[in-house]
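quick one, 598 residues, struct below
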Amino acid sequence: MATGSGPTRDDLPAPGARITPNASADFRRELDKRHYDAVDDSWAGSVPAQYGVAPRIRIGRSKWFNLLWLLPIGFVLLIISVAVAKGLRDVPAVTQFMEDHPGTITPQGAEDHAGFPAWLGWQHFFNMLLMIPIIRSGVTIIADHPRFYWTRHSTPGKDWFRVQKPVPSDPLWTAKQDSITLPDGIGLPGRRHSIGLARWWHLGINTLWLLNGIIFYILVFATGHWQRLVPTSWDVFPSAVSVLIQYLSLDWPTDNAWVAYNSLQMLAYFVTVFIAAPLSFLTGLGMSPALSTKFRWISRIFGIQFARSLHFLVLLWFLLFIVMHVTLVVTTDALHNFDMMYTNTDDADSWNGFWIFAASVVVMVLLWVAATPFTYRHPRVVQRVGYALVGPVQRLFEHLDSRPGEYTEKDISPYMWHNGKYPETPEYKALYESNFADYRLQVSGLVENPVELDLEQLRRLPYHEQITQHFCIQGWSGVAKWGGVSMQTIVDLVRPTSAAKWVIFYSFAEGPDGGIYYDAQPIEQMSYHLTMLAYDMNDETLPYGHGAPLRLRNEIQLGFKLVKWIKGIEFVDDFKDVGGGEGGYNNDHEFFGYRQSI
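---
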C-alpha cells in the first residue's frame, strides 16, 4: 500500500539540468530498429535446440517414475483385463447382470430425433480441424516451461510432472534456459522458445473453437439432440459397466447409434462436451494475470498452477478420447459409422460417407503439414491474425484495475524463477560495482516536467508496497513482496501532456539479437493501484537477478512486459517509431503481443 497520497512540493526534486523533452533520443539510438519478418536459424539470437526427457511423474518427495513404463505395463494389464472379462461372461451372475443391462438406454422420444443432422456433421469437422492447431500449439506452450505444479509456487523439485531434467544448481538459471525443443511435426511451431507464435495459434484458434462450441450448445438443446449426450437415468452406470465388459471380452456390443449411443459412449461424450470442454475454458481464464488479480475468487479456486495442471489433464483427456473415438469408429462397422455421420443415412453398405471422411482427412493433413512452415515464413501474419481474433478480449481485460490484499507475507514464494538476458554492458557493470551510487532514472518525453532521479530521490518519494503474484508467459508463477514508488506518483511528478498515450520503459539489458530491451505500456495503466517501480523485493534491496536497481510491476500484464534493470522512461503518443515499432523487444523479435493480459 502507499504511505502517502502523492508527492508533495517538498518531495519533488529539482528538474534535471541535463533533461530535455528529447533526452530519450539516446535510449532510442540503443534500440535494434531492424524489422524481423521470418523465423530462421538466426532467430532470437540463434537460440540452440535443447531436448527434454521422457515424461516423469513425481512419487513422494523425490522419486520420479518414467511414464514410458506405462506402455508395457498397460499392455500387460490390457491382456489381463481381456482374460478376466472373458471369464466373467461365463459367471451366471454376470451373465444375468448383462442381460438386465444390455448397454443401450433409449430415451423416450429418441426415435423422433434419430440420425445425425447436417449441422452436426459440419460441427464435427470444424471441431476436428480446430483441435489440431490448438493441441499442437498447446504442446509448444508446455515446452516453454516443461513442468507442472499444484501450488502457485513454482519451486524446483516440487513439480509433480516434468519432461525436462532437474533444475541445475546455478542460482541465476533462467526459465528460458529451461525451455525445450519439439519436432516441427508435433509442436506448432516446434522451435525452442517460440511461445509467442504458439500463443497466437492457441488463443486465436480457441476463439473460433469457443464460437463453434457455443453454436453446438444452442443447436444440441434446440433440436433435442442432447438426449444422446445427457444421461437421464441412473441405470446408465451399470449399463456402462456391462458395455465395458463386452468391449474387453472382445464380444463387442451391437449398437443402434442411429437412435442412441450405448451407455459408455454416452458417459464419454457427456464428460467431453459438458465437463472437459467448459473446464478447459475456465482453467484458461484461471491463468490470466488480469482476471486472477481482479477477481480473487478465480485465483482462490483456480490458482495459476492448479489451473495450468488441470488444463494439462484436460488435454490428456481430449487426446485419450480422440484415440479411443477414432479407434472404435474405424473398428466397429466403419462404413456404417461414416455414412451416419457424414451423409445422415442409415446405410451400412454405402461408401459415400467414407469418401467425405477421406476428403476431410486430406484437409486436416494439409493443415497439419503446412502450419509450421507457414508460421516460420510468415510470423507477422500469424501475429496479426492472432491479435485480430483475441486482441479485443485482451483489451477488455486490461481495464480491470485491482487493489492489493489477496496475499500476505506467509504466501511469499520460497523460490522465484529468474528470466531474461542479464545486463552485461560496461555501463551497467560500473553502476553495479558502485552500488548504483551514480544511477539516474531519466523520465522524459511528452511531459511538462522531465526529471532525472537518483535512488535516494526515488526513496524519498511516497513508499508503495504490494504482495502480488507474478505470471510469466512461459507458465511459471510466484508470489513476492515489492516495495518502491507507485507509477501514479511518477505521473504526478512529471505531468504528462494530453498527447501522451504510451509509456516506454528502457532497460540496461540487451536482447538476444542486440539492442536494449524495452516495452510499451498504455498510459492509463500507470494509474492502476498495482503498477509501480520496485527497488525492494521481500523487504530487501532488489537483487541483480530480478532487475536491480529498478524494475516495473504491472500486475495485469505477463512477466515479459515488466521491464527489469530500468534505465529510463519515455512518455510517447505512439510506439510505431520506437525500436521495431511493435511495442516491445519481444514483440519486435519474437512476435509477442503488446497486449498480454491473458
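The chain has 19 helices and 14 strands.
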